[in-house]
Design a protein that fits this description.
0% strand; 48% helix
Length: 79
Amino acid sequence: MTAISIRNLDSNVKARLRIRAAENGRSMEAEIRAILAEAVTEQRPAGLFDAIRAVSLEHGGVDLELPRRNRRQRPVQLT
């Protein structure tokens, strides 16, 4: 396994990491490993449709009422 040193880490960030680790019942090192693993395995939407869908699903989705068509569509006449 690889070791990583992080220099010049803000003391407020370190304090928040310590609190987050305690809330999750982990050491700071284990918490940082979990954060890094989650960050690199996160799936990002590939396109605009997927991005919009992901946002709507976060909020429970969207139900659209489609109006009922009164007349049938005619087939295209090929000449």
